[in-house]
Amino acid sequence: MNTSNLNLKDSFTLKNGVEIKNRLFKSAMSEQLGTKDHNPTIGLATLYSTWSQGGLGISMSGNIMIDRNALGEPKNVVLDEQSDLSIFKAWTKAGTANKTHLWAQLNHPGKQIPNFISKEPVAPSAISLEGGLEKGFNKPRALTETEIQGIIKKFATSARLAKEVGFTGVQIHGAHGYLVSQFLSPRHNQREDQWGGTLENRMRFVREVYRNIRKEVGEKFPVAIKLNSADFMRGGFTEEESMVVVKTLAEEGIDLIEISGGTYESPSMVGHNMEERTKQREAYFLQYAEKVRDIVDTPLAVTGGFRSANVMNEALQSGATDFIGLGRPLAVDPEIPNKLMTNDNHRIELKTLTTGVKAIDKIAMLDITWYELQLARMAKRKAPKPHMSEWLCFAKTLTSAGAYALRKRRA
To answer: Could you tell me the pTM of the whole model?
Structure first.
């Protein structure tokens, strides 16, 4: 295919015949807009309506958890048999306006559950998080065979319900150190049964999750995955292993692969430790995508770092990616897709977030929580506040987490 004249406005047709109106892909961001029962708030419908009018081709939801006993964050939305499906339908109706696709990102956090939410999280192996995260996350318990099979079924159930309530696709979250990523990593998965050891065994979990989802939703419903190019940790999931997983999932029939990288312990997904060449090309994982393109023809989305319309168009024209993934820029300007498509010189500017105290920056997880507050503003029909104080963000995050922790103790 000749890609030399491609630009962001061009449509794309997946192999299953599903058409996406343009090449702009909203990557998942944590919204923290669930109710106390973990249903969507009306604010989610407002937020995604705003994004649908902004011109996106595909809008990916934030984490939708498949198990209400395994939450990554206090206000996660859960989609299971106990969910209020009518509220989900209001969300998908708003989010699919303007011919926008709205896909549900399905996730299980594994051990990445803050200790004020879970005393004993589960994981492939009983191995703690490191890198200074030990105080905030408890050591997990290793999953049993029965529990693993149960989680696979929960992924499939959530996918079936996602299709039922009006999402137009689903994405398996297989990146950033969550459960699927933990199974893939030899650092975190040291099992000696069929789910661990060799790469063939370590990728059995994601392959079974995909197969069970596919049985529930059929061949014409898009099923995607967000996958790490690497964990960027000693003894972790490597780029070479990632390539094998990509090829395996492509052969299985996955509809789209979104490329990312890193974990809570090594957060490359937010641009930490970037090489100079990467800064010049903007996209963190474009070089990896070029290698993937050599081995599979599955549609690709590259997320992380894109800031300039002309660079985005160049990435499409190079053939390295089919979709341009955007996250944080959409939290400060929901009209960015329309601006990028109408002005080849448009550039996105994001400020560097810091309180001036590195320890507090890490505790507050500013790269996530500051943007969550912007989403909360839009959910209330307020404009984003690009110059919001980082200290205000820290205070609000601390208040919110503390109140939730107290509720859990009283329960």
So the answer is: 0.91
For 55-82, what is each residue's pLDDT tens digit? 999 999 999 999 999 999 989 999 999 9
Higher pLDDT, 269 or 369: 369
d(CA 52, CA 338): 11
